[in-house]
């Protein structure tokens, strides 16, 4: 059987897009008011899974390069604080399903987010008790594939499974040589057929079905 389950965060465990939009537009009002209101849900969903600097470049391509770093600093601080206070929208039955999974497997999060964002998720929804370890490029400076491999290595996992919703998640898991389960209810899609679930509550049965000998 699998000896560890690694989860993506946005689009897999929750939908925090509305909270992010609100916090980002607040920062834009202060730092670059000419762009305030340009961060909308439809535009941001298309960027989920990307690194923060790449999201900013995609959504605000005309932003002066001298403004990017102050903007990034403001976005990081405001987003983490807002998410910690207000949270996001958990997918149906996430707490109950995590409780079930944690009985049989150590659980982990590897997300392409900034430092402090996963902690904000834990604070907002009280789910940190279910997770053994987590990682992100904000702490390591490494891409998701390397961070998956890092969590696998430091926790001594031999048969892990990565669960995520985007093509980038699949690519990162493949790079780390970790099997992949697609959270098809999330933001993204995969270019070819892979094992998938249509709801978070379906994960325990899928994990059992896919478990190696």
Keywords:
six-stranded parallel sheet; alpha/beta; 213 residues
Task: Describe the SSE topology.
Layout: E1 4-7, E2 14-15, H1 17-31, H2 41-45, H3 52-59, H4 65-86, E3 89-90, H5 94-102, E4 107-110, H6 117-125, E5 131-135, H7 137-140, H8 144-154, E6 160-164, H9 167-175, E7 180-183, E8 196-197, H10 203-210
Parallel strand pairs: 1-4, 1-6, 4-5, 6-7, 7-8
Antiparallel strand pairs: 2-3
Helix pairs in contact: 1-4, 4-6, 8-9
Provide a descriptive summary of the structure in words.
Helices cover 47% and strands 13% of the residues. With 213 residues, the chain is α/β, with parallel strands linked by helices. The strands form 2 sheets. Strands 5-4-1-6-7-8 form a 6-stranded parallel β-sheet, with helices on both faces. Strands 2-3 form a two-stranded antiparallel ribbon. Helix 1 crosses helix 4, helix 4 packs parallel to helix 6 (117-125) and helix 8 (144-154) crosses helix 9. The longest helix has 22 residues, at 65-86. The chain starts with a strand and ends with a helix. The mean pLDDT is 93.
């Amino acid at each position: 059987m699998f000896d560890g389950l690694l989860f993506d965060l946005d689009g897999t465990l929750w939908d925090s897009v509305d909270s992010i939009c609100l916090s980002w537009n607040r920062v834009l009002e202060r730092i670059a008011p000419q762009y305030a209101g340009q961060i909308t849900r439809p535009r941001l969903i298309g960027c989920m899974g990307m690194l923060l600097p790449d999201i900013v470049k995609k959504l605000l391509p005309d932003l002066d390069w001298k403004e990017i770093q102050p903007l990034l600093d403001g976005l990081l601080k405001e987003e983490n604080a807002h998410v910690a206070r207000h949270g996001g929208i958990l997918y149906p039955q996430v707490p109950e399903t995590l409780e079930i999974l944690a009985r049989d497997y150590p659980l982990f999060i590897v997300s392409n987010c900034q430092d402090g964002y996963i902690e904000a998720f834990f604070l907002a929804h009280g789910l940190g008790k279910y997770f053994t370890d987590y990682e992100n490029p904000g702490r390591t400076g490494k891409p998701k594939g390397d961070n998956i491999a890092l969590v696998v290595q430091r926790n001594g996992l031999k048969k892990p499974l990565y669960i995520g919703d985007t093509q980038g998640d699949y690519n990162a898991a493949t790079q780390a040589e970790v099997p992949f389960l697609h959270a098809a209810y999330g933001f993204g899609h995969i270019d070819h057929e892979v094992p998938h679930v249509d709801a978070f509550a379906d994960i325990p049965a899928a994990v059992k079905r896919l478990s190696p000998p």
